[in-house]
Sequence to fold (220 residues):
Amino acid sequence: MPRNEKIEAILIAWDDFNRSTPAEKTRCMHRLNALLDEAIGDRPLTRENLMTNLSGHYQEFRRTKKLREQSRLPK
Amino acid sequence: MQTVFTPSLKGRKLTPFDRFEKSTRWFQEDAEIPDSIKVGLVATVWLSSVETFRESEEDRLISDAANGTENYSQGHKIVLTTLISQGEVILDAIKSFGLPPKFKEFSVEDFESAIESLYISLRSEYGPKNHPKIDAQIDSIFNAA
Fold:
């Protein structure tokens, strides 16, 4: 499945949620849930369905992000 | 006060939280230290442990990609479920004893959200996969965007 803006926004929000400071956790979770709910609309799907579907994309997103961060570090 | 720690599983890799537990039993057993202080400290250390866990996940993603191995190991699942279990016990203690009066680092809701982030990882990585019809429906959402 090709990446698009909707997926990208969800992956960023998912990562923000996982990597946020403790005091930001609830706010980040609400943002992620809002994006998932928006994507679902009135379809008979759950947030869990979407996150299961996007799990592989999320792993790839994290790997790419980490590699990018590492390449910026001074050798 | 009830203990907010769970016993370590024999042979399991220790998380930072486990190491904290082992080295601070005296603190847990000190009746002069208010329960809310104990709970606040334990909750803070658990959250740090979750942060370390997330960092180790990323390191693993990089090394697995380099080695052509599977994304995660059984060890990852064990640490993930252990953190969830510890988090639930600490949450129960927070609800029983509260956080310290001047504590501003995070709220009870934030702590619950941190546990939820781990449940999401567990469900999305190790839970049941979607029915193909569900995946097709989701693909159509994103392909239409």
Chain A is about 75% helix and 0% strand. Chain A has a mean pLDDT of 91.
